[in-house]
Amino acid sequence: MAKKKAAKKAAAPEYATKKLCSQPQPIVQTFDPGVSEARAGFILSNNKKWVNGTDIKYMFIEGAKAQCDVVRQSFKDWKALGIGLTFTEVTNVEESMVRIGFDQTDGSWSYVGRDVLTIARPNRTMNFGWDLTTTYGKTTALHEIGHTLGFQHEHQSPFAGISWNTDAVIAEFSGPPNNWSVSSIQSNILSKLSPNGLNGSQWDPASIMEYEFGPGLILAPAPYQQGIFPPGVLSPQDIAGVRSIYPPIKPATITKLSVLQSVPIAALSGGQADFTFTPTISRKYTIQTFGEMDTVMVISEQVKKQVIHLAGDDDSGTDKNARIRLPLVKGRTYLINVRVLFSSAQNSGGIVVV
Ligand SMILES: [Zn+2]
Fold this sequence. Notes:
- There is one protein chain.
- This protein is of the alpha/beta class.
- It has 2 domains: 2-245, Collagenase (Catalytic Domain) (3-Layer(aba) Sandwich), CATH 3.40.390; 251-353, Jelly Rolls (Sandwich), CATH 2.60.120.
- Helix content is 22%, strand content 24%.
- The chain is built from 7 helices and 16 strands.
- The protein has helices at residues 2-11, 37-46, 65-79, 135-148, 166-174, 182-190, 236-245, and strands at 55-60, 86-89, 98-101, 109-110, 126-127, 163-164, 218-220, 254-257, 263-265, 272-277, 283-291, 293-303, 306-314, 323-328, 334-343, 349-353.
- The strands form 4 sheets. It has a 5-stranded mixed β-sheet. Strands 8-10-15-12-13 form a 5-stranded mixed β-sheet.
- The longest helix has 15 residues, at 65-79.
- It is globular, with a radius of gyration of 22 Å.
- The structure holds zinc ion.
- Residues 21, 23, 143, 147, 153 line the site of zinc ion.
């Protein structure tokens, strides 16, 4: 193995493999019996996405200011694309959704999309294992936030059609600087992702979610036998992709709800419907979706400039509907955002406040 590696390095002495992101095992969703394969496919395509409009609250559990500042700026760079998500730094672990560490022995990684919500506090949902104050460090910060927003590795896209020189890949990544186990190489490079859960159906070798690969690792497509060298910035396809999943929420598209008045949801699988509700008396209310849909529903309240998350429910893959019961206060306006993971047809379901 060492011999093979030495020969390859000699052929391309100018190229040195970088330390690369090493992802944790993804959270696997289970389904009720009777959920069809097609329905499960739609759910899996959409279940990592955040409900658009979510204020993603992140905190640093450690880290020098210069390192944290690169991450802060990278959140701003994603936000500056004009997306419907917002990012707020918090210092209270109970409030946090994304928890960022800098364990230098643990590589760089992040859970994907809403999987971060399944990680118990105060555990990390994202880690940086090397210096972020370099050009490559900045690329790493943008990449890991890309995972947090729901994006996966581009080189594992089934649409990439990459055929690997498996022995060379294992030799390369089991050695320094990555020193990965074979199973880690398998899950981070060699295995293909399911087409479900991917953004779009085209491979984007320039994506921030694409690794850099040196020569000799890829057998096909032929143009990549000499390697893949993404520019390390957000690509046009990254920008179009994040804007399509998280477009800005326009006030004109928000529907006002009244008690006992059901409103159909026209959004199809992957889409979203947005509502507000202003109670005329203070009491407990039930807000629920109905019909043949799988949805994630989130209720929040805007207090001054802050979006306060109140409750959320995910009914996907079950026969239930999303349902939240909680006390609401007269005269206040609550935001209700519904991400449709699966809908059998337009207006096949809706929402009602009781
Ligand atoms: Zn990654």
